[in-house]
Design brief:
mainly alpha
């Protein structure tokens, strides 16, 4: 088993069976995210969060459209069962310990979105000798690029002042969603003969963004000051 997709075919492309399984997982997760965003879209954009919600919805639809068209699909008899399992996992579940149902659902929604964009690095699965202009490879790189930007809005929301009284519960929900997404992602990869034993050593998109943000915060604070860890735990 290899930590990357492959072996590549004679044209330097990822095998269609692996493309199908990876794309199906990503479309299931991002489809669930798009549906939840659609349900929260305001009729008219009246504030900054309305703009951000609309932008994130459009990006999710772009990801879904790109995956559908860039993937070399092939029949996979296991997919119906897997998709059912994935879709059940993405269902909203209010954050535990939150008495306000609406607030609990919002926290879970943001935590799932944070995990989806932060715990998965699809481009890291591509071997170095994969074809640069292959549609599937380009789609994986594009998704990872978009994830870093989308995750920033989710981090700002989850660290908002409205959640200070329940910070520990927010952190617990984010950790739960991260663990869930990573477990299902790793299980899917094992099913297509991808070795995940060393994958935990690679930085996730969340860790990269967090490290960059931490360095930037330290540069603003200057020497001699203790940095306050205001990150959302995962």
């Amino acid at each position: 088993m290899s930590p990357f997709l492959g072996p590549l075919d004679e044209n330097g492309r990822v095998p269609a069976q692996q493309q199908t399984r990876v794309a199906a997982f990503l479309m299931s997760a991002h489809g669930a995210q798009a549906r939840q965003l659609a349900a929260t879209l305001p009729g008219a954009v009246r504030d900054g969060w309305g703009v951000e919600t609309h932008v994130q919805y459009c990006r999710e639809m772009e990801i879904l459209s790109l995956l559908a068209r860039a993937t070399s699909w092939t029949p996979d008899p296991v997919l119906p069962f897997l998709i059912w399992q994935w879709e059940m996992a993405w269902l909203p579940k209010p954050a535990e310990g939150i008495t306000d149902l609406r607030q609990g659902l919002l926290i879970d929604f943001a935590a799932f979105s944070h995990a989806l964009h932060g715990a998965i690095r699809p481009a890291a699965l591509l071997p170095e000798n994969s074809r640069d202009m292959d549609p599937f490879s380009l789609a994986m790189h594009r998704m990872e690029l978009e994830s870093g930007r989308l995750m920033q809005g989710q981090m700002v929301f989850l660290k908002g002042a409205q959640f200070h009284p329940v910070r520990s519960l927010v952190n617990a929900t984010v950790e739960r969603r991260h663990a869930q997404v990573r477990e299902l992602w790793d299980t899917m990869l094992r099913g297509i003969d991808v070795d995940i034993s060393s994958r935990h050593l690679a930085e996730t998109a969340f860790q990269i963004a967090l490290r960059t943000n931490t360095l930037w915060q330290a540069s603003l604070q200057g020497p001699g000051k203790t940095e306050q860890d205001d990150k959302v735990k995962h």
